[in-house]
Amino acid sequence: MVDADPRFPDDDETLVLEPDCARCPALVECRNRISWGVGPDDATVMVVGEAPGAGNPDADRWRGGNWTGMSYTARHSGRRIRETMAAVGYESGVFYTNAVKCFPSDGEGSNRAPTAAEKENCRDHLVAELEAVDPDVVVPTGRHATESVLALDDTSLDGFLDTVLEPVESERFGYTVVPLLHPSYRDVWLSRLGYELDEYLADLESRLP
Questions:
Q1: Residue 2: pLDDT over 60
Q2: pTM for the whole thing?
């Protein structure tokens, strides 16, 4: 079963790398806060998303990284990935971050895909997090996050669904990459991949330290 009330992170675990980062003018214009990675600095697992969503400033707690300044703290995707990790024994001991740290607005209040330049501008931050935390396993969520993580080893992604839960070793950093479905679309794709939720979680657990 998946825990319906995951642990909310402590803001003192936030790894702030460049407090006033302005590398991407378009993102500076639409963000409220930079959504930095958060979690223990000796985490064995790092979860990497694509970018923070718009979030909800009126929510009691799960307002999203665009408002909390902490990755994966949105009511839907943030709660769901944290529930998922807790269900496989990782309620704690996980560092959560995004490949792009700022909300990429589509101009109408929703996300757009980060541009190649935005991902490149933020790549140094992701590398710095990986070097600081030194995880054993990196879990990118969804196609775009998986592309960003694999790009660190100059590896391209041909078909995302074929990579889900298929471990890939990073020669550059020494960790194992275990791609997951994006938490917001997990239920849509599980059956198409032939998974029941319990089987999916069991396979994930078997690939973690």
A1: no
A2: 0.96
